[in-house]
């Protein structure tokens, strides 16, 4: 729907499609994305000038969207300690234990403008198939003696889009360094050791994200190298970075 409309409306007009339920949700690499009722699900259309800070580093879009999802919850007064976190390159996690959301970005360059279609989905009030944000709030209330209210999917989609708009403005003005401190605040990888390619492969430590949004690892006895998100899978459970 958005793909058909995005070139027919004025550039200054925003487009978003919100679904209560998806029957053909897709993830990265052709994976199926399960979308029961209770998820926040939408596709958002953005235009980014090619010759801008973000246009020259377009892979950063997925990181900005993931960060916007986390901040949509963790910037609400009282909800700052809800354990929503970021897994590179495009996943939303409960701590470093369980996935509860993801981001998928498609871009098309027409002349000097990127047309970006951002699909994101995250579990708000559905406990299955993994865990949801309201489960985390219930646990937090029980552990901390608080009375935080459950959140609604429509509210969090609106907050996510608003936060994303501000993140893009900061990135366009200051580049990666304008947003990376906020990203690192929530990501799950700081100081983590991984193995390259296989379980007996060389050890490496995750050090951050480079200027193009790719993961940087420091190999034991070697230098820092960047890992491309489309050519590698990052297995959280086994701490492996392996070529697909």
Automatic annotation (TrEMBL):
Record GO cellular component, one term: cytoplasm
Q: Does the keyword Nucleus apply?
A: no
Q: Where is the BPL/LPL catalytic domain?
A: 1-172
What keywords does the record list, in alphabetical order?
Answer: Ligase
One annotated GO molecular function is: biotin--[biotin carboxyl-carrier protein] ligase activity
Taxonomically, the superkingdom here is: Eukaryota
Q: Which InterPro entries match?
A: aa-tRNA-synth_II/BPL/LPL (IPR045864), Biotin_CoA_COase_ligase (IPR004408), BPL_C (IPR003142), BPL_LPL_catalytic (IPR004143)
Q: Does the keyword Ligase apply?
A: yes
Q: Which PANTHER family match?
A: BIOTIN PROTEIN LIGASE, BIOTIN--PROTEIN LIGASE
**Family affiliation:** Belongs to the biotin--protein ligase family.
Descriptive protein name = BPL1 ligase
């Amino acid at each position: 729907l958005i793909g058909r409309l995005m070139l027919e409306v004025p550039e200054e007009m925003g487009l978003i499609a919100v679904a209560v339920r998806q029957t053909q949700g897709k993830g990265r690499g052709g994976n199926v994305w399960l979308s029961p009722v209770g998820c926040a699900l939408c596709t958002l259309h953005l235009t980014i000038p090619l010759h801008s800070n973000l246009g020259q580093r377009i892979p950063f879009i997925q990181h900005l969207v993931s960060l916007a999802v986390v901040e949509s919850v963790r910037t609400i007064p009282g909800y700052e300690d809800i354990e929503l976190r970021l897994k590179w390159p495009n996943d939303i996690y409960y701590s470093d234990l369980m996935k509860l959301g993801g981001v998928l970005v498609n871009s098309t360059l027409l002349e000097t403008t990127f047309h970006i279609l951002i699909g994101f989905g995250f579990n708000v009030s559905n406990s299955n198939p993994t865990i949801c944000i309201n489960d985390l709030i219930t646990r937090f209330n029980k552990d901390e003696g608080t009375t935080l209210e459950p959140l609604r999917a429509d509210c969090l989609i609106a907050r996510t889009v608003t936060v994303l708009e501000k993140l893009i403005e900061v990135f366009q003005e200051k580049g990666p360094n304008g947003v990376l401190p906020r990203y690192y605040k929530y990501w799950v990888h700081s100081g983590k050791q991984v193995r390259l390619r296989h379980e007996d492969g060389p050890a490496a430590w995750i050090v951050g994200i480079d200027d193009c949004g790719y993961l940087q690892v420091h190999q034991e006895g070697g230098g820092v190298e960047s890992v491309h998100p489309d050519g590698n899978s990052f297995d959280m459970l086994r701490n492996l970075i392996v070529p697909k």
